[in-house]
Amino acid sequence: MSDKIRLLVGSDSAGFDYKDAIYADMQADDRVEVVDLGVYAGDLDGGSYPSVAIAAGEKIRAGEADRAILFCGTGIGVAIAANKVPGIRATVAHDSFSVERSILSNDCQVLTLGQRVIGLQLARRLAKEWLGYVFDPSTPSGPKVDEIVEYEDSLTG
Ligand SMILES: O=C[C@H](O)[C@H](O)COP(=O)(O)O
């Protein structure tokens, strides 16, 4: 069995250019196996930010993928939508420290980035950095994430 990160990328039309650039980066990154959930060139109105974010979150929830990097104009809409999927922790993070802590503190499965907010080269760098972090549940951050999971489990059964 491969030990590569099963990564999804996706966007709405406002995040398409960055999604495509980072999809290309990830195809060349031997740490990951990447799947593009769209939107696709030629069909830029083919998906809204909620639809692609919920689709990504549901694939992670179902165990079909490990992580996702999602794009919209700000990164906010895809984060909100992905967070509606039970069990998903998604965040927008546009600086290196937040990208690090989104894994090491929060065990986020989803990073979101805003094409209208940051430059492409920063987005590419942040995506690569994010994939290099691994959450360690034995750290003091572990029980805090557990508390979130337990609360959510109490709601969803
Ligand atoms: O959060 C939403 C995204 O930025 C999206 O790409 C743009 O949404 P809007 O068209 O509703 O502004």
Automatic annotation (TrEMBL):
Classification via Pfam families: LacAB_rpiB
Enzyme Commission code(s) on record: 5.3.1.34
Signal peptide bounds: none
Top-tier EC class: isomerase
Catalysed transformations (reactions): D-erythrulose 4-phosphate = D-erythrose 4-phosphate
Keyword Isomerase: yes
GO biological process, one term: carbohydrate utilization
Pathway note: Carbohydrate metabolism; D-threitol degradation; Carbohydrate metabolism; erythritol degradation
Record's keyword terms, sorted: Isomerase
GO molecular function, one term: intramolecular oxidoreductase activity, interconverting aldoses and ketoses
Family: Belongs to the LacAB/RpiB family.
The protein, known as: D-erythrulose 4-phosphate isomerase
UniProt organism field: Friedmanniella luteola
Organismal lineage: Bacteria, Bacillati, Actinomycetota, Actinomycetes, Propionibacteriales
